Every structure is written in structure tokens, then in C-alpha cells.
């Protein structure tokens, strides 16, 4: 298969790790903008809720983005594998901000209210499990963890597919009525999942 | 008619007195600037209403800033985001307007809006507003009691309910053009006749001393402060007195989640979330929202609890 990355393209000025870090930092910008606007008072009457929901949506977007990297390589030979890890970490970062805004900012760490919420709001169950998966994946994304887990790493990180589906449910039933956006995100999630189920051609030795 | 006494929300519930006092100077300033653009009488009334604390009543709770009241709305006819009603209501031109009053009344008629305000006047009512989504505001409405209009219409013997219908103008209301995911249009609501006749029940034509902006339900809307906000149907075109319980929009959409009564009740949760407390819009900061416990009948229990005597509020939620 022809590969986009190595031979044909000029070598980047930056090392792979630097490029990963730059991508990660660049995409923290939406969070920084929201928080800056919130502090400046230009995010409307309920800035907390805007941040909460924006961060949740960004978490979902980055999760989906990280999940299309592999099919991009497999089906259209675009190799962005270098950026899969920072995209996954961005998904986790935004999910963590999302949870922080819910648990600390909106609910004041009040365990009574949080418990009440957790037992009366089914969509939270889906959200919590999604977050736990993303946290586990982020924690095992270091080189050392990959080495330590060995062959178990791949099946563990397939949980990302489950996270994608749970996030879809979480987002879809969080509203009073049906909204269009969750279905769009869900369609992408199902598409990525369907691609994953396309059988791989048997390996042939090329040489 | 004697002025109706109702509980003004207490400043002490959320607002330090010093804040409140300094705010009063702000209101004076705001009143001055509004006078300059010619809303003399209403603004004077508004100022008088705010100053209630000096007349020996409990000082009113701090009203939610005007900007928040007019920028954070649920009005699905314009869109489902809280900012949509303010942003997407530019095409809505409510005037001229009239309200048809019909059904089981002695004097069915079509009231031009000007006649309504001329005949029934306008008073200021500082009311709590509790949204079913567990957030709340304190809003200075201008309007007249629905009871005044109903008395003029003369409900017939046997009448038990009042049905309300909102406007249907898809060309001016983008939210009415979305099909699949939307509520059914036009929005409809209803009250029992005794609820409708209750002196707290208001037909509002203004907010903060000025005519209602489109996003708040221009030019005339219902305000029932002891019920969840969705009962307060906006942009009313028709009021029908009837002998059977009328359909209501959110109840049609999800009957197990939104009842006909929809009385504010911290003990009866929404199936998908708790109603025990509420976020106070306009208070708190980005990193710490303001929350307070929700009160039975939104704090108006003394005035309205007897309407529901003997009823199971869990069943008739």
C-alpha cells in the first residue's frame, strides 16, 4: 500500500512527539476560549451550562476523530496514526472538564444531590461509564503501559467503540425532546463501527 | 379592585442586604434612562414595585437581571437552544394582535390587544419563575389578572377549564418549520377554571416595565407562578372556556413526564431528573453556580394549596 507519510512528503521540521504535543495544545484552544469568555461574562446568562455542554460535545468530537484515524489509513491510505493518541487524550481531557463542570461547578460536590441525580437521571449512568472507559484508556496510553499490557492492550482499547456508543445514548437522551445533533454524532459512531466490522483481507506476504 | 397581596420573594433567601441596597440605586438609574425613551408610567410602576420593601412588606428578592430574562428563554417556536428565542425571533412581528375569547362564555369576542390593556390596566408583579428544567428566575412582569378578562367574558355554568392556544406562524418562527423532532404546533395549554380565576394568575403584556420582547412571549402571555414555566403559554391567540380538560403540548409529547397540573413540587421528581433544587440564573459565577432548594408551589403554597385539597399531587403531577 502506498503510504502518505514517510517517503513522498518532506520531513517535518518537528519531531513526531513535538507534533503530537502541538496538536494537543492547539485543540485545547476551544476550552480556553470558553473559559475566557465565561470569565469575561460574554457567554450568556448561564455560562456554566454552556461550558458543560460544549466540553461534552468536544469530548465526543475528539473521540470520534480518534476513531476515524485507523479506517482512514486502512481504506483511503491516509496515515494520521501519529495523531491518534493526542486525539484520544483530547477526548479524555474534554470529558474530564465536562465532568468537572458537572460535579464541582454545577453540583458543588454535594454528594446528596449527585446521588439524587445519579439515581434519577439514566443518561448519567451512560455518561459515567463512558468517562470511566476514557479514563482507563488515557491511563494506559503511555508507552510504558502499552509495553506492560502487551497483547492485552488492543482488546482493552477496543472499549473505545463501546465508549462511542454509550456517549451517543448519553447525548441523545439528555434533552427534553429529540435533537438532531446526537443523531449525527451517532451516525458517525455507527459508521466507524460498521467499518471495523468489514472483514480484513487475509494477510499475504508481499515479497 | 383592591390590590392583591402575594408573597414577595424574600431578599434574604439569596441576596445579602448590602447587595440589594446598592442594586436599588442601579434601578433608579435604569428607571431614569428608561424614562428618557418614553415608558414613563410603566417604569414608574416598576420602580414603585421594586421599592416594596420600604412599605413594610418583606423586601423583594433580587430580580434576575433584565438581560438574562430576555436572553435565556425556552420558546421552542424559535428553536431549542436557550439563546435561540432572542436570536431567531427577528422575523416575528406580533402587532397588530388580538385575542379570541370563546367557548362557554356569555360574551364571546375578539379583543384587540390595545383594548385589553386599556380595559384591564397594567400592574407590576414580581414573581418567581421555576422552569421544569430545574432553573429559576425572579421576574418583574407587567400585566393584569386573567380573572378580570374571564369575568368580563362571563363563564357559563358548567364551565370547568380554560384552554389556551398560541400563535402558528412558521414563516416567522423557524422552530415551527422543523418537523420530525418538534412539538406539535400550535402550542396549547390549559388550566382548571379555579386556577385561571386565581388572583396570582396573570396575563403579562410586559416585562421590566416595557412591552414583552418576542422571545418572552410577545405581545401577551400567561404567567402562573406556582407552576412550571411551560404552563406559561406565550403569544396567546385564543382563550376557550370549556367543560373538559384541554390537551397541553408537553403532556402530548411525553405524558409520563409532564402532567396537566405541573405544579412546582420538590417532592415529585421529573422521571429523568430531581426537582429538589434549582439553579438560580443571574447569580453565581462561571466556576460556581448558585443553587437553592425548590419550594412547594414555588413558594406560593399559602395562596394556592387549597386549590388542590384532597388531591394526590404525585398522581396529579
Pick out its properties.
heterodimer; A: 207 residues; mainly alpha; 10 helices; globular; B: 317 residues; alpha+beta; Sulfite Oxidase, Chain A, domain 2; 2 domains; 5-stranded mixed sheet; 9 helices; 23% strand
Overview of the structural elements:
The complex is a heterodimer of chains A (207) and B (317). Chain A has 207 residues and is an all-alpha fold. Chain A has one domain. Chain A is built from ten helices and no strands. Chain A has helices spanning 16-26, 29-40, 47-76, 84-106, 111-120, 122-139, 143-149, 153-157, 159-172, 180-197. In chain A, helix 9 packs antiparallel against helix 10. The radius of gyration of chain A is 19 Å and the shape is globular. The model of chain A has no long low-confidence stretch (mean pLDDT 90). By secondary structure, chain B is of the alpha+beta class. Chain B folds into two domains: 7-62; 64-308, Sulfite Oxidase, Chain A, domain 2 (Alpha-Beta Complex), CATH 3.90.420. Chain B has helices at residues 17-36, 40-50, 66-71, 84-87, 113-120, 146-153, 193-196, 249-253, 301-304; strands spanning 98-103, 109-112, 123-130, 135-145, 161-166, 188-192, 202-207, 210-211, 221-223, 236-242, 277-285, 288-293. In chain B, strands 3, 4, 7, 8, 9, 11 and 12 form a seven-stranded mixed sheet that branches. Chain B is globular and about 55 Å long. Chain B starts with 16 loop residues before the first helix and ends in a 13-residue tail after the last helix. At the A-B interface, helix 2, helix 3 and helix 5 of A face helix 3, strand 11 and strand 12 of B.
Amino acid at each position: 500500500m502506498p503510504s502518505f507519510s514517510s517517503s513522498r512528503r518532506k520531513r517535518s521540521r518537528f519531531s513526531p512527539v513535538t507534533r503530537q504535543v502541538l496538536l494537543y495544545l492547539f485543540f485545547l484552544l476551544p476550552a480556553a476560549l470558553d473559559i475566557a469568555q465565561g470569565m469575561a461574562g460574554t457567554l450568556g446568562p448561564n455560562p456554566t451550562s454552556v461550558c458543560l455542554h460544549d466540553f461534552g460535545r468536544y469530548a465526543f468530537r475528539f473521540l470520534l476523530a480518534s476513531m476515524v484515524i485507523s479506517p482512514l489509513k486502512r481504506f483511503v491510505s491516509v496515515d494520521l496514526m501519529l495523531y491518534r493518541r493526542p486525539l484520544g487524550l483530547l477526548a479524555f481531557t474534554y470529558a474530564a472538564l465536562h465532568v468537572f463542570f458537572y460535579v464541582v461547578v454545577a453540583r458543588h460536590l454535594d454528594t446528596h444531590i449527585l446521588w439524587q441525580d445519579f439515581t434519577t437521571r439514566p443518561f448519567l449512568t451512560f455518561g459515567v461509564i463512558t468517562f470511566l472507559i476514557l479514563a482507563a484508556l488515557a491511563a494506559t496510553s503511555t508507552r510504558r503501559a502499552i509495553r506492560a499490557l502487551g497483547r492485552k492492550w488492543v482488546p482493552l482499547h477496543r472499549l473505545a467503540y463501546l465508549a462511542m456508543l454509550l456517549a451517543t445514548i448519553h447525548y441523545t437522551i439528555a434533552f427534553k425532546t429529540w435533537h438532531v445533533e446526537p443523531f449525527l454524532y451517532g451516525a458517525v459512531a455507527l459508521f466507524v463501527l460498521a467499518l471495523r466490522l468489514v472483514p480484513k483481507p487475509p494477510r499475504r506476504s508481499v515479497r | 379592585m383592591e390590590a392583591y397581596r402575594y408573597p414577595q420573594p424574600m431578599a434574604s433567601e439569596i441576596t445579602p442586604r448590602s447587595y440589594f441596597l446598592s442594586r436599588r440605586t442601579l434601578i433608579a438609574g435604569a428607571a431614569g434612562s428608561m424614562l428618557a425613551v418614553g415608558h414613563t408610567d410603566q417604569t414608574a410602576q416598576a420602580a414603585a414595585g421594586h421599592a416594596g420593601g420600604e412599605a413594610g412588606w418583606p423586601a423583594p428578592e433580587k430580580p434576575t437581571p433584565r438581560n438574562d430574562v430576555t436572553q435565556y428563554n425556552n420558546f421552542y417556536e424559535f428553536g431549542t437552544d436557550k439563546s435561540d428565542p432572542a436570536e431567531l425571533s427577528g422575523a416575528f412581528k406580533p402587532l397588530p394582535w388580538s385575542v379570541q375569547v370563546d367557548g362557554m362564555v356569555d360574551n364571546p369576542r375578539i379583543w384587540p390587544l390595545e383594548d385589553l390593556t386599556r380595559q384591564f390596566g397594567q400592574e407590576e408583579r414580581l414573581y418567581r419563575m421555576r422552569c421544569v428544567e430545574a432553573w429559576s428566575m425572579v421576574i418583574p412582569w407587567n400585566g393584569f389578572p386573567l380573572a378580570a378578562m374571564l369575568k368580563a367574558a362571563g363563564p357559563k355554568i358548567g364551565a370547568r377549564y380554560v384552554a389556551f392556544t398560541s400563535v402558528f406562524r412558521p414563516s416567522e418562527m423557524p422552530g415551527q418549520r422543523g418537523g420530525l423532532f418538534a412539538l406539535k404546533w400550535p402550542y396549547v395549554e390549559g388550566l382548571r377554571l379555579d386556577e385561571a380565576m386565581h388572583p396570582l394568575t396573570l396575563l403579562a403584556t410586559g416585562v421590566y416595565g416595557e412591552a414583552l420582547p418576542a422571545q418572552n412571549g410577545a405581545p401577551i402571555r400567561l404567567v402562573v407562578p406556582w407552576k412550571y414555566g411551560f404552563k406559561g403559554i406565550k403569544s396567546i391567540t385564543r382563550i376557550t372556556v370549556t367543560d373538559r380538560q384541554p390537551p397541553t403540548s408537553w403532556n402530548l409529547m411525553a405524558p409520563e413526564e409532564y402532567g396537566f397540573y405541573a405544579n412546582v413540587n420538590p417532592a415529585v421528581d421529573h422521571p429523568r431528573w430531581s426537582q429538589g433544587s434549582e439553579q438560580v440564573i443571574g447569580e453565581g459565577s462561571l466556576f460556581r453556580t448558585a443553587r437553592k432548594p425548590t419550594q412547594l408551589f414555588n413558594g406560593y403554597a399559602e395562596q394556592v394549596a387549597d386549590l388542590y385539597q384532597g388531591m394526590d399531587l404525585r398522581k396529579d403531577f
